[in-house]
């Protein structure tokens, strides 16, 4: 599985260069104006119209594909999605070039966590807290997609979410605004590289604008209702970060926000995005969301919906056909303005010029390059490295892990131990070839199969309730020196349209774990899934547990690297793991209330549940290592600051163990007294640091006004004089060093 050092260094050097230099942006406004002046109204509306490839729909079928080619030839289709491959995109582009003005199409695809090489889920990558690696995997994904005829990915998804019932948490960066904003920037930079138009770059698309992750009850597509202060404080910043990082496009969201579907929200798309934020790219509607304003009960028909969406600032219509079929009449009736249509067309044409598609419409559709670039060993090595870094070690008592490489017999037990398919996770680009996905069993076999005997027993299915397989699984365990279990969801039990009210381990998997644990053998449980899951008995009784998400192409190899200590796990949870669904939404940066319980026994007249603790099972920022880190010697350069001052914070981190490891040190602040209220803690900075055994280093953070500011009820970005608690730790609930300072006016 390894390859020579030279190709690895070359590939990584290439990637490193590509993320550093940014190409100068050319001004195409004169060319855009000249072309716009030649266009008929129908040709303009064609640019606002996007169709999916009929054979690879990623949403409800809204129409049959008859006549699609004819519409392309007439210039009535400005973009397509779900068309893959240099050959297929070239063939369709040739049809578009038969139109009167020969305006090329843009090809978009959900390259969410890899194109040909599949990376860990975005939520898993967020668990790495490794911004450089996150940028690198987006770079690889862009390089592969752009070699395959695609100029636009519908990623990064930057929706903050605090509710693990929502299936799409797998696609984002978790619950925290600061971490989510940093990751949004890393992914935009990775996708767009040195700038769109480069042959290894694709347009990014920050989605879903906005607040889609706050769907009531975690049920996908459900309503969102929140104060504007909440929206600005927690849900908009990752979008702003993506726009400031140069994201070429945004995608709006299916949800209504405070009674207005996002697709029709002029507040979001015109006032904030194109107004206050001066966004010069374009907004694409999410699949059919313009037409969906009819079932929302916001529009009476497609014409009504088109009027509201255009007035609301949606530029391109994905799949609903409401624009192409109604905007001409709406214009004639004076219900939409020509200036709005021209603005939308300008934004789209500008991106087509920037992509170089007018110079050479086929420049991304080069089959020779496609063959050279896709699925290279170097790219798979990046996938393996990212996968290792995404694994979160939740428990490791009696030093069960790492496993010795000279074990005689290892039992691999559980419904996911031999699964290839599930390793890809939701929103992978499906090649239908599971040989590209390394299973846990294959990874362990490649690592130690030449000296250890591997036993396998499925034990049970993921969801079925049959315990018939238990006996065989127990037998395998009894013959082994150690048991490694692979349990969790199926890959498609999270993702779009896959919310779940019950996020316990499905089926009888926890019963299987109990049966294996009862053998008395050392047991390691690997939990796999696209969201936080609940497995309380396992958490209480099994000595070694890791959460491995869905790790993509190199999943099995990465899990084996961690199991046998070739990589010391460094992941930290980007979302709180609940004890019960009843706690959801659950998040670490909560408000204290007037009655927060001091401990779990305090129930009466407290903001608490009678039947479960308020605390998460596993906290935001939590993750263990095979070594241990010590924090000491905290110093603040001053204990008082004004808005214009800064405080330098420094402390010493030591790897006090016997093996090299990486630690994610986290800085939290609390604004102790404020109006409106501020949370009990908020992540304000972090570093991922690699230290050799016994090595120490000094870590520095800077506290400035930006880290203290917040939105008031008037949506002003303010600070208030007062005291702040400073916390530095290995997790939000594992604080190692504390201090205080005061902001004076
Ligand atoms: C889907 C998703 C969106 C995706 C789009 C195109 O419904 O909501 O994230 O980019 O349609 O596949």
UniProtKB/TrEMBL annotation:
UniProt entry tagged with the keyword Signal: yes
Assigned keywords, A-Z: Glycosidase, Hydrolase, Periplasm, Signal
Catalysed reactions listed for this entry: Hydrolysis of terminal, non-reducing beta-D-glucosyl residues with release of beta-D-glucose
Gene Ontology biological process: glucan catabolic process
Annotated signal sequence range: 1-23
Enzyme superclass (EC): hydrolase
GO molecular-function terms, A-Z: beta-glucosidase activity
Claim: Signal is one of the keywords in the record: yes
Origin superkingdom: Bacteria
Catalytic activity, EC: 3.2.1.21
GO CC aspect terms: periplasmic space
Fibronectin type III-like domain segment(s): 663-732
InterPro entries: Cellulose_Degrad_GH3, Fn3-like, GH, Glyco_hydro_3_C, Glyco_hydro_3_C_sf, Glyco_hydro_3_N, Glyco_hydro_3_N_sf, Ig-like_fold
Subcellular location(s) per record: Periplasm
Family: Belongs to the glycosyl hydrolase 3 family.
Protein name: Periplasmic beta-glucosidase
Lineage, opening ranks: Bacteria, Pseudomonadati, Bacteroidota, Cytophagia, Cytophagales
């Amino acid at each position: 599985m390894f390859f020579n050092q030279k190709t690895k260094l070359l590939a990584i050097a290439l990637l490193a260069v590509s993320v550093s230099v940014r190409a100068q942006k050319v001004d195409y406004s004169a060319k855009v104006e000249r072309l716009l002046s030649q266009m008929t109204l129908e040709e303009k509306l064609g640019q606002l119209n996007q169709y999916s490839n009929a054979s690879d729909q990623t949403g409800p079928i809204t129409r049959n594909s008859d006549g699609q080619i004819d519409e392309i030839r007439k210039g009535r289709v400005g973009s397509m999605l779900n068309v893959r491959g240099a050959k297929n995109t070239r063939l369709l582009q040739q049809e578009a070039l038969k139109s009167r003005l020969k305006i090329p199409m843009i090809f978009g695809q959900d390259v969410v966590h890899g194109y040909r090489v599949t990376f860990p889920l975005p939520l898993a990558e967020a668990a790495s807290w490794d911004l450089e690696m996150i940028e690198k995997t987006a770079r690889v994904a862009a390089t592969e997609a752009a070699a395959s005829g695609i100029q636009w990915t519908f990623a990064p998804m930057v929706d903050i979410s605090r509710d693990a019932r929502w299936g799409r948490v797998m696609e984002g960066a978790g619950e925290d605004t600061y971490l989510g904003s940093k990751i949004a920037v890393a992914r935009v930079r990775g996708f767009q590289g040195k700038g769109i138009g480069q042959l290894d770059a694709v347009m990014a698309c920050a989605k879903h604008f906005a607040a889609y992750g706050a769907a009531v009850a975690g049920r996908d597509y459900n309503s969102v209702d929140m104060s504007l202060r909440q929206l600005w404080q927690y849900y908009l910043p990752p979008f702003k970060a993506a726009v400031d990082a140069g994201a070429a496009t945004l995608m709006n969201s299916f949800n209504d926000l405070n009674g207005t579907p996002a697709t029709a929200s002029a507040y979001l798309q015109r006032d904030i995005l194109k107004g206050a934020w001066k966004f010069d790219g374009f907004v694409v509607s999410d699949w059919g969301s313009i037409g969906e304003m009819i079932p929302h009960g916001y529009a009476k028909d497609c014409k009504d919906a088109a009027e509201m969406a255009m007035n609301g600032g949606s530029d391109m219509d994905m799949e609903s056909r409401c624009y192409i079929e109604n905007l001409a009449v709406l214009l004639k009736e004076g219900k939409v303005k020509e200036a709005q249509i021209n603005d939308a067309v300008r934004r789209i044409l500008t991106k087509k010029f920037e992509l170089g598609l007018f110079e050479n419409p086929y420049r991304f559709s080069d089959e020779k390059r496609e063959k050279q670039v896709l699925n290279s060993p170097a790219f798979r090595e990046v996938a393996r490295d990212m996968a290792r870094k995404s694994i979160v070690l939740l428990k490791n008592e009696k030093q069960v892990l790492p496993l010795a490489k000279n074990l005689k017999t290892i039992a691999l037990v559980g419904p996911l131990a031999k699964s290839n398919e599930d390793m890809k996770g939701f929103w992978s680009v499906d090649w239908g070839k599971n040989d590209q996905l390394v299973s846990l069993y294959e990874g362990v076999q490649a690592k130690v199969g030449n000296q250890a005997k591997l036993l396998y027993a499925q034990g049970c299915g993921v969801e079925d309730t049959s315990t018939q397989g238990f006996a065989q699984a127990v037998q395998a365990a009894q013959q082994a020196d150690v048991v490694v279990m692979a349990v969790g969801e199926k890959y498609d039990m999270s993702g779009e349209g896959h919310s779940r009210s019950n996020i316990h381990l499905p089926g009888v998997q926890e019963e299987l774990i109990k049966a294996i644990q009862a053998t008395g053998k050392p047991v390691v449980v690997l939990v796999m899934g696209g969201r936080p899951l609940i497995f309380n008995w396992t958490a209480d009784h099994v000595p070694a547990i890791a959460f491995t998400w869905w790790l993509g192409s190199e999943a099995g190899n990465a899990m084996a690297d961690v199991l046998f200590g070739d990589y010391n796990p460094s992941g930290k949870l980007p979302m709180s793991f609940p004890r019960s669904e009843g706690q959801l939404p659950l998040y670490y940066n909560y408000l204290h209330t007037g009655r927060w319980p001091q401990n779990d026994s305090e129930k009466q007249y407290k903001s608490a549940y009678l039947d479960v603790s308020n605390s998460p099972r596993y906290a935001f920022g939590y993750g263990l290592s095979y070594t241990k880190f010590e924090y000491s010697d905290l110093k603040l350069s001053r204990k008082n600051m004004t808005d214009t001052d800064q405080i330098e914070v420094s402390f010493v981190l030591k790897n006090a163990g016997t093996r090299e490891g990486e630690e994610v040190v986290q800085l939290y602040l609390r604004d102790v007294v404020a109006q409106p209220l501020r949370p009990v803690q908020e992540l304000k900075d972090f570093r991922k640091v690699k230290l050799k055994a016994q090595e120490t280093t000094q870590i520095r953070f800077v506290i400035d006004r930006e880290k203290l500011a917040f939105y008031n009820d008037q949506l002003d970005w303010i600070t208030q004089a007062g005291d702040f608690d400073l916390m530095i730790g290995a997790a939000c609930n594992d604080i190692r060093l504390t201090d205080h300072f005061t902001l004076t006016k």
